[in-house]
Design brief:
- The chain has eleven helices and ten strands.
- The chain is α/β, with parallel strands linked by helices and 284 residues long.
- The protein has one domain: TIM Barrel.
- An eight-stranded parallel β-sheet has the order 3-4-5-6-7-8-9-10. A two-stranded antiparallel ribbon has the order 1-2.
- Strand 8, helix 6 and strand 9 form a beta-alpha-beta unit.
- Helix 1 packs across helix 10 and helix 3 packs across helix 4.
């Protein structure tokens, strides 16, 4: 079984560099998918309140039989959980939403809790981030961070509290490599985590440049892309409900991309997003 490297977060917590995501996995499928992932060797699981599969995710973790302390579990605060984004009730709403996530997951703590989207049109993050700092202080969230924040939103957050986010989970894949944001993260001690690390589809994995690198190493294009993430210092959370694909995505050790390979993967960059632009995203 592969041994996946870890990233040491800015609070000293080790986070596996390859995890398993359950976005768009139905709750009744999540238990089987998560159990299969853990049995395949994954030790990091990523879910969110809005995915509506925290119950199934928690069940899959328990059914896998691996001690909870050996797993790294992430969930996220959804927009509608804090309708008063900048008001004093924001803090209390965060704590209520966090407790609800713990109950659905069937655990008394998470390893990482994230603000799912920045919603910059709603003003200050001060009261929201205060609650996150409290959760980190009492240990119910071993680390706290954000998702989909750009440099401007991160800068705003850095001025709103004393705790630097441990992680920023963002869209990142060879088509959209986020070099500027990754440089900002490195400057401020924020780990970069990629959602949709495989680009959400066949177009990226069908790129001739990736096929050539894959053939060179006797691997699949997906394994090459995930290896590119790891060697770039990025945390990646691929998603699948197919057991063979779940196992395939985990087998990303035992080979190394050389400088030419890394350049070949980088050469497919288009700067094109798959998901929405966070600066205008305000779904409830």
């Amino acid at each position: 079984m592969s041994t996946i490297p870890s990233i040491t977060l800015n609070n000293g917590l080790a986070m596996p560099q390859l995890g398993f995501g359950v976005w768009q996995v139905a709750d009744d499928e999540a238990a089987t998918a998560v159990r299969t992932a853990i049995e395949s060797g994954y030790r990091s699981i990523d879910t969110a309140a809005v995915y509506e599969n925290e119950v199934g995710t928690g069940r899959g973790i328990r059914e896998a039989g691996v001690p909870r302390e050996e797993l790294f579990l992430t969930t996220k605060l959804w927009n509608s959980g804090t309708k008063d984004w900048s008001g004093t009730s924001g803090r209390d709403a965060v704590l209520r939403e966090f407790d609800a996530s713990l109950e659905r997951l069937g655990t008394d703590y998470v390893d990482l809790y994230l603000i799912h989207w920045p919603r910059p049109m709603h003003g200050s993050y001060g009261n929201i981030w205060q609650a996150f700092e409290e959760l980190a202080a009492d240990g119910r969230a071993k680390a706290v961070g954000v998702s989909n924040f750009g440099p401007a939103e991160l800068g705003h957050l850095l001025g709103a509290g004393s705790l630097v986010p441990a992680v920023n989970q963002v869209e990142l894949h060879p088509y959209f490599p986020q070099q500027e944001l990754r440089a900002f993260h490195a400057e401020h001690g924020v780990a970069t985590e990629a959602w949709s690390p495989l680009g959400q589809g066949k177009e990226l994995l069908g790129e001739p440049a990736l096929a050539k690198v894959a053939a060179k190493h006797g691997r699949t294009p997906a394994q090459v892309v995930l290896r590119w993430h790891l060697q770039s210092g990025v945390i990646a959370i691929p998603k699948s409900v197919t057991p063979s694909r779940i196992r395939e995505n985990f087998e990303v050790t035992g080979f190394e991309l050389d400088a030419e390979d890394m350049a070949a993967v980088a050469s497919v960059a288009t700067g094109r997003r798959i998901g929405p632009d966070p600066t205008g995203f305000d779904w409830n």
